[in-house]
Amino acid sequence: MEVFAEYLGHIDNTQHRARTEEVLTWVTNKFPNLMPKFAWNQPMFTDHSTFIIGFSVAKHHLAVAPERTGINHFSDEIVQAGYDHTKELVRIRWDSPVEFSLLEKMIEFNILDRADCSTFWRK
């Protein structure tokens, strides 16, 4: 988690910082084989040097970026969880609970789907 310490320290809102730290800690503990990395101004996790999932903080939400393939695969479940999404990210509003089971599915999907991927991003 120390790789994210500076990023977390710059989040002024203590509730947003606590929520972000909770999610990043959960990913770290649930998926100890993933490598935490700070790049492109966001905390992210990689597997064999390929992108799995990224996070960023916005005024009204925590953005979760499992890439377009992950969004497309889980679009219905994302909506059922009450989250808004774009082609590239899921918005978890600060006043909404984190559906960790959905987050787990998205991460597991990307790990399996990218098992043979040799590039950082999908092509």
User: Looking across the biggest beta sheet, what order are the strands in?
Assistant: 1-2-3-4-6-5
- Give the distance, in angstroms, between the N- and C-terminal Cα atoms: 29 Å
Mean pLDDT: 95
CATH fold category name? Aspartate Aminotransferase, domain 1
Number of domains: 1
Indicate the proportion of strand residues: 15-25%
Runs in which pLDDT lies below 50 for 5 or more consecutive residues are none
Question: Would you list the SSEs in sequence order as H and E?
Answer: HHEEEEHEEH
Number of strands: 6
Give the C-alpha Rg. 14 Å
CATH class: Alpha Beta
- Which percent bin holds the helix content? 40-55%
Largest sheet: 6 strands, antiparallel
Protein name: Iron chaperone
Organism: Paenibacillus sepulcri
Domain YdhG-like: 16-111
InterPro entries: YdhG-like
